[in-house]
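Tokens as discussed.
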């Protein structure tokens, strides 16, 4: 049904089509998140650990949101990503998409930087940041915090799901943030225990 709706949207006027395309993209993203959540318990059966280039996985996640970057006039800066890591590409890219989704949702102007610090992948934005009292609870399922209550679209699923997936992949996840100054998400890709 989503694909059929996309075909119909292509026949609309340009301004109407752009807005409908954005809404369809969001619907597709929510469906994808829900499907991955439902697969989480059986995720171990689907894992394929190999060596991958971080740059390729990051580019795939950024490309997924290219329309959103353009629509919001946000720039993305990628550097020092020519690092090989052992992971499951499909599941890690899904996590990167979830993190980028949050960065894009809460960044109104500025940029998103994605870079490596040794074996740690950093995604840093210039967004509104996270309240200090919310930080300890951001990985709880269903917790939306102050920002989520302000932005009625928040579900409290994305970061919880991302944390669970990265734990199963053997990768560490940490988030630092200061309200009004942005958020820094760090994924430690050296902590692989599943092989």
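Sequence:
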């Amino acid at each position: 049904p989503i694909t059929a709706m996309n075909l119909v949207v292509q026949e609309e006027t340009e301004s109407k089509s752009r807005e409908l395309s954005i809404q369809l993209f969001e619907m597709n993203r929510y469906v994808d998140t829900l499907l991955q959540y439902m697969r989480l318990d059986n995720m171990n059966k689907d894992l394929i650990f190999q060596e991958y280039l971080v740059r390729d996985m990051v580019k795939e996640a950024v490309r997924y949101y290219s329309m959103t970057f353009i629509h919001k006039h946000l720039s993305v800066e990628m550097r020092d990503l020519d690092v090989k890591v052992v992971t499951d590409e499909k599941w890690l890219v899904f996590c990167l998409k979830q993190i980028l989704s949050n960065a894009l949702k809460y960044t109104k102007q500025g940029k998103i930087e994605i870079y490596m610090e040794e074996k740690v992948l950093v995604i840093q934005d210039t967004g509104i940041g996270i309240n200090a009292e919310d930080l300890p609870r951001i990985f709880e399922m269903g917790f939306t915090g102050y920002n989520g209550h302000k932005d009625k679209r928040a579900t409290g699923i994305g970061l919880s799901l991302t944390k669970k997936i990265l734990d199963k992949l053997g990768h560490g996840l940490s988030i630092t943030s200061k309200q009004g100054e942005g958020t820094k998400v760090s994924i430690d890709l050296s902590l692989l225990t599943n092989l």
